[in-house]
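User: Before I run my own analysis I want an independent prediction to cross-check against. Here's the chain; please return only the structure tokens and, at the end, one sentence I can use as a sanity check.
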Amino acid sequence: MTERKASFARAPVELPDEAVQAERFEKARSAQASAVLEDYVELIDDLLASGGEARPTDIARRLGVSHATATKSIGRLKREGLATSKAYRGVFLTPDGHALAARVRARHRLVVDLLIAVGVPPECAERDAEGLEHHVSDVALAAFARYLKR
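Assistant: Structure tokens:
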């Protein structure tokens, strides 16, 4: 039994400074919170460009969430000044919403292109970029662009 316990023992881990570690975790939580808004504005922008309207029902189906969840998130977009809505006409982006959608789309493309450049199959790169794009810093994105010679 003693041998078994010993095999699970871990070497001491050197932890970063508390403030540094807290900042890292805060950055991840913040990115997660803004990821939802970014996904919504990007999808709304795509729906408006492809069909002229972005109805909450369509948004919910495409994001794989309930209608209530989509409505709640759309309300948040409106409070943040990124979207407006009209009865029986759906959701529209404000100029700030369109600008955010463009930034998110460009970031997504850059992450996809980097993943493909390092050998990730295109379909997998698209899927993986959907999560990575929200968590990558501007410093890392600039490095990706330099690597891809953009």
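Sanity check: The beta strands are 83-86, 90-93.
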